[in-house]
């Protein structure tokens, strides 16, 4: 009888502790899940050829990574902005939001993205109004951020005012980034490189 009581007490002790541990684990797991949902992954990398590529939502800090900093910094530092056009762009940029789709694997994106950031810096653009989305070679993201946006080539810069698309620059500017942006933002007729 004494042995039976000891066995029963041991089983009860293990069961109670494991249910406490399980509850503790459930609380931690649900906290982790909630915090993961509230934290959107930014600057996520995936393997690409002998290196990596950014994929999904990103920001300028992503270009500081070893795989990207050489082309980004060189492109940024060597680009000379058209200051005459910048003066006209500054007031127009205050009223817009911009979405940039680009691929860190893409030569056109590597050329235009640093130039674009330099233009934004020179115009004191509020970078919180810029959404940077990095895509795969298929122009997709795991989150489907490209859906409904008709992204056929990168980089694609889309300019919005009051939620409505004003226009876009696709793969490369027709004249220059500054002149193309000015045409779009001032409401002039503008057709990107792939417009029909």
Automatic annotation (TrEMBL):
Classification via Gene3D superfamilies: Glutaredoxin (3.40.30.10)
InterPro entries linked: Thioredoxin-like_sf, Thioredoxin_domain
Limits of the Thioredoxin domain: 40-190
Coiled-coil ranges (or none): none
A Pfam family this chain is assigned to: Thioredoxin_9
Protein name: Thioredoxin family protein
């Amino acid at each position: 009888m004494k042995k039976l009581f000891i066995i029963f007490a041991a089983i009860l002790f293990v069961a109670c502790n494991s249910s406490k541990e399980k509850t503790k684990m459930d609380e931690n797991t649900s906290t982790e899940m909630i915090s993961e949902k509230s934290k959107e992954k930014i600057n996520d990398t995936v393997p690409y050829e002998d290196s990596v590529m950014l994929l999904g939502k990103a920001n300028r800090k992503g270009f500081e990574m070893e795989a990207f900093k050489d082309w980004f910094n060189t492109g940024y530092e060597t680009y000379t902005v058209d200051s005459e056009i910048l003066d006209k762009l500054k007031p127009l940029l205050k009223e817009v939001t911009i979405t940039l789709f680009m691929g860190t694997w893409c030569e056109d994106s590597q050329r235009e993205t640093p130039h674009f950031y330099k233009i934004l810096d020179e115009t004191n653009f509020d970078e919180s109004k810029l959404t940077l989305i990095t895509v795969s070679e298929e122009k997709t993201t795991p989150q489907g951020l490209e859906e409904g946006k008709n992204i056929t080539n990168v980089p694609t810069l889309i300019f919005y005012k009051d939620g409505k698309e004003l226009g876009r620059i696709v793969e490369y500017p027709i004249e220059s980034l500054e002149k193309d942006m000015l045409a779009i933002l001032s409401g002039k007729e503008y057709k990107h490189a792939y417009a029909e």
